Amino acid sequence: MEITDILSPTAIIPNLRATSKKQALQELAHRVQELSGLPERMVFDVLLERERLGTTGIGNGIAIPHGKPVGIERLFGVFARLERSIDFESIDEQPVDLIFLLLAPESAGADHLKALARVSRLLRDKIVCDKLRTADSADALYAVLTESPTIRAA
Question: How confident is the model at residue 152 (pLDDT cuts 50, 70, 90)?
Fold first, then answer.
C-alpha cells in the first residue's frame, strides 16, 4: 500500500491554524467534508470517540487520528502541518505539529491496520519529518509524503 492510495494532493493542509486538539480535529473534519461529502459533524464525532479510547498522538510531534465513519467507501487521508504546535495529549507529552488523519470503511479490517502501519512508519522517519517541517507548499509536502522509500534511502 502506497501513500498515494490514500492521500491526494488536495488533501494537504500546509498551515493549519488550530490552538487545541479539538479545534484541529474540527478543521480536519471540515476538510474531509469538502473533499468527500461526508458530514463534518459525523467525522468529528468519530475522531473524538477514538481519542476518548486513548490519544493518537504517537510522539515526536506527530498524531495519527483515525476512525471508521459510516458511509466512507475507501481509505482516505488528510495531512496537516500546523502553523503552531498544539497539545495533543501525546504519549511523550510533547506538542504536535504534524497530523495525518486516516479514515477507513467499517469493513476495511486489515487494510485499515496496514494503512496505519504505513503512515506510522513514514512519520517515524526523522528525515521525512524534517522535510515536512521545512517544506514551503502543499505540493512540496505531498512530494515528501509520496516519495518512494528507495529514493529516500539514496
Answer: very low
